[in-house]
Amino acid sequence: MRRNAFWKRFVVLLAALSLCLSFAGCGQEDTGTENGDTENNGTENSSSDENGGNTAESGDPIYIAILAPFTGDYAQYGEWIYHGITLKTDEINEQGGINGRQIVVERFDDRNDTEEAANLADQICAEEKYLCVIGNGTSGCSLTTAPIFNQYGLVQFCPFPNHMDITGGTTWGMNVDVYTEYRNWADIAMNDLGAQKIALIHLNSDNGEQVREQVTETVTEAGGEMVAVESYITGQVRDFTTILTNIKAAEPDTIMMTANYADVSALLIQAEQFGFPEDTKWLFGNECSVDDFLSAAGDAAEGCYVMTTWAADASETNRSVADAYAEKWDGEAATAYSMQPYEAMNIVIDALESGATDSAGLQEYLLSMPSEYEGEVVSGYWNELQRLQRDSFPYYIVENGEFVLQTRE
Question: Which of 27, 121, 207, 336 has the fewest C-beta atoms lying within 10 Å of its C-beta?
Answer without folding.
Answer: 27
